[in-house]
Design brief:
Layout lengths: L3 H33 L3 H28 L3 H34 L3 H13 L2 H18 L6 H31 L1 H17 L8 H7 L14 E4 L4 E6 L5 E5 L5 E5 L16 H4 L6 E5 L5 H9 L4 E6 L2 H10 L8 E5 L2 H7 L4 E6 L14 H9 L1 E12 L6 H10 L7 E3 L5 E7 L5 H8 L10 H7 E3 L14 H15 L14
Parallel strand pairs: 5-6, 5-8, 6-7, 8-9
Antiparallel strand pairs: 1-2, 2-3, 3-4, 9-11, 10-11, 10-12
Helix pairs in contact: 1-2, 1-3, 1-5, 1-6, 1-7, 2-5, 3-4, 3-5, 3-7, 5-6, 6-7, 7-8
Length: about 500
Amino acid sequence: MQDEASTLRLGLVAFVVGGGTLSTEISASRLLAPYFGASTFVWANIIGLTLAYLALGYWLGGRLADRRPEARVLGAVLLVAAAALVVTPFAARPALRWALHGFDALSVGSVVGSFFAAIALFAVPVTALGAAAPFLVRLALGDVTEAGRVAGRLYALSTAGSLVGTFLAALVTIPWIGTQRTIVGTAALVAFGAALLLPRPWLLAPVAVAALLAVPPPGIKSAIYQTDSAYQYIRVVSDGSGGRELELNEGVVTHSVWRPGTVLTGRYWDLFLMLPPLLRQPPRSMLVIGNAGGTMGRAYGRFYPDVSIDGVELDPKLNDVASRFFGAGDNPRMRLIAADGRPYLERTSRRYDLIVVDAYRQPYVPFYLATNEFFRLVRQHLRSGGAVALNVAATPHDRRLSDAIGTTLLTVFPRAWRWRALRFNDVLFALNESVTRTELERRARRVRGKLGLLVPLFRRRLEAVRPTGAPLTDDRAPVEWLTDRMILDQIERRGSTSEPALPTAPG
């Protein structure tokens, strides 16, 4: 029969192990997301391999507990977990950099190999944490007649720890101190659980691990500003010519730009400045879902100053960055809103002349912003003669994602159009009135100033969307699968990833 002190000690260890396991899983997703995204495929690999490691740990822990049912043995197992965990964020970085280099070189082997190599870094700590569960039951079990009560208590405490570890990591520590320090802090917590089972001198182990909290996360490149938010790593960098660029996570793509003295960029944001002339009458209001740094809204303030803009961005910190570094305040008619785009539309009664969707999370568009149900919601919020437009990823040889979203647009709007102005971005748009191509080309000639340079490109590369396959729905929208197929096809072709500038590029 266990004494009360021993029972409390084992219960605390169970709580710590549960918290450490789920904190590790949440941290793993944040460690990998900057390089591989946060799609359901990535999460499936993280969750699936975590469960596999736990299952292996349960089996190994049960066998070891029967052979050596000693608290110090479990303490040693948890020390192994803590040691393996604390080196993970430092050991993972070279593999993840290799992944980025592999992507740049369009090498399938290095991309896929480094992905699984990075996840494999969590094999030792998670397996060791899994081994603790049966070990704790074996140590706490004094009488077989109490097996159910003992196991139930320990699993309840472990699950309670898992809940605390999940929410503490996701909502507090990662936004507050970052992913690296969250993992190190989790390792220190596991080392504390080990020390509870070992002789008193081992109490120095969690202190030694916690000392690594003082190691600052390495800067990936010099930055004007950088911070961790609840959603991502945010960095503002110089473009080397007096301008600024917004990079999220590992900076594979640029999400916003600011140039002194101009609102034009020579990149895809400029394409959306062609939309107002395409409407039957000048627009008065516009909604941008995925506002980021507000590059598009700033340009509208210069070319279409009468248009009021609601810029919706999921991450509140990006709104601060937009105002501070990307000139969001230059357009007094732009309102920054911290919200998820679709729930915002569900709640608001406002109607718009233009709704633009530019909500990428490297490189995926959220599936719920590309479905029939979403576009029906969009149309309900469009004024007569209004339009919706989307920035959609593409490659020179694969428009399957663009085809799927265009097909879905046709289930709600009378006609849909694709402007293939760039190699890796399509602009899809649809008006809630039926307009011919001839009429669109006529309206496009209304543009003024340097935007007129886009008109020949518009006439040459505009095409009507034809239905292809099944439309996307909330129940079935494989946008991640379509995007992955598109990326892999480009990798296999070993094609160039360069994107020529638009004719609106600053001189």
